[in-house]
Amino acid sequence: MIRRWRPRARDLWDRVWDALRPLDPYRSVKAALGALVIVSVIITTLLVFVAMHSATELRVITVFSIIASLLITQFVATGLTAPLGEMTEVTRAMAHGNYTRRVRADRRDEFGDLADAFNRMAADLEAVDTHRKELVANVSHELRTPIAALRAVLENVVDGVCEPDADTMRTALKQTERLGRLVEHLLDLSRLDNGVVPLHARRFEVWPYLSGVLKEANMSRGASTLSGTGTHTRADVHLHLDVSPPELTAYADAERLHQVVANLIDNAIKHSPRHGRVTVRARRGDGPESLVLEVQDEGPGIPESERYRVFERFNRGGPAPSGPGTDGGTGLGLAIARWAVDLHGGRIGVAESPRGCRIRVILPGLESSRG
Prior knowledge:
371 residues, five-stranded mixed β-sheet, two-stranded antiparallel sheet
């Protein structure tokens, strides 16, 4: 009985303590200023009382009272305004590009709350600045690689080192297409970041829709094999579609979903072993017209410690793709897939799988349109 009473008493005491916060000089600026006024009045009253019971003149007591009040006010004011001065210095440092500095947040009053919020803002700005620098560095690197290769090919043709035959032009075209894919992906991400991508959701049948996406993937792989200029030349990978029930319908933006599925399939093919199998599986979700979509390959999979980074921009899940015949891609496909799923109000992530990698997409269907 006593054990049950103690937690209740502690909770009651915590509530009372929180209710008394405005009266605590250490937890409220208003209370500190009120305490300053009270202390000044008490000191003045005591000095007047001393003057009345002694031979000290009243003007001397008044001077001492003013000096004591000023000293106490100066002491309290210094303690209250110190965090503001520190925030001013840190703000000036941030204006010059230094986002690593923080202010002390050891106070319990409103200035302590302001310091906590200030440090969170500084941390967010530092993360944004770091992301911006990484984005510029990654984009510069990704643009430099195909441009350098294309320049080398053209210089060889101009200098007469090699003839402008079909193989040479095919190599130049491959680098040009890689450069075009990168620019297209960056434009897609820019539109998604700015929120200018409209979502045109409609109801559609899943089986014929996914069947068309897989057919396009097979056709692009066939064209890549013949020309040697595609994203990959993995015609040895088999694509399999599994939709249950066959009459399954979903409510989503077909164009954006096509972008998601195409990127997931392309990523799965690039990481598949020779003569591997990529399975696209679709099931009904929990809500009306919702959809659970999975793309699974038979590759090496993704370590659990790296799964949270899979959908980051320019992340390739390792130093190089494991499948043969790949160019490494741009590292933007899964990032675009994540943003497209976010537009639907859905979720995307790496699901547990005994073999390979399985990416699961959950679209809420009609629930997202009602929200």
